[in-house]
Amino acid sequence: MLHAKVLDASNQKIEISNAEKFLNSSKFGAIIYFVGTVRDINENKKVIGITYDSKDTMVIKSFEEIYKEAETKLNIKQKAVFIEHVKGYVEVEEKSIIIGVGCKHRKDAYNLSRYIIEEIKKRTPIWKKEHYTNHESEWLKGVTIQQI
């Protein structure tokens, strides 16, 4: 069971309660949430926010592929995964991604959560433009379309 969505940051916020509702099941003995937030310093630069950009259909396709691969690579059959990522401007301390996983056992839940975030970082086409206190901004190195 997979929930995968890209949210427009200008009118939607990531809510852990949505993940909790999706993952609520007596089948799971372990539910883990990973929440990524915008931090205030990167490479010694004072960050005030990040603009995330993506081709939403490609992001969802990537999330679906990662979910399917996890079953084979990690041998976790009974699972539920909730993934939401924002698109648009996000201020420091605000959430940019949530990954929720439900599994029968905690070891599987930890492994699955870690696998999903690491694969998203490696290959999902989401680009970040950092905005700094000195009114400058720059796009960070990320996944190129050729890598997908």
Could you please describe the fold and organization of this structure?
The protein is an alpha+beta fold and 148 residues long. It has a single domain (2-138), classed as Alpha-Beta Complex (Aldehyde Oxidoreductase, domain 3). It is 30% helix and 40% strand. It contains three helices and eight strands, in the order E-H-E-E-E-H-E-E-H-E-E. It has helices at 16-23, 56-74, 106-123; strands at residues 2-8, 30-37, 41-42, 45-54, 79-91, 95-103, 126-132, 137-139. Helix 2 (56-74) crosses helix 3 (106-123).
Radius of gyration: 16 Å
CATH homology superfamily: Molybdopterin biosynthesis MoaE subunit
Total number of domains: 1
Task: Count the DSSP helices.
Answer: 3
Structural class: alpha+beta
In terms of DSSP E residues, the strand content is 35-45%
N/C terminus separation: 24 Å
Share of residues in helices: 25-40%
CATH architecture: Alpha-Beta Complex
Order of helices and strands: EHEEEHEEHEE
Number of strands: 8
What is the CATH C level class, in words? Alpha Beta
What coarse outline follows from CA principal-axis ratios? elongated
Remind me, CATH topology?
Answer: Aldehyde Oxidoreductase, domain 3
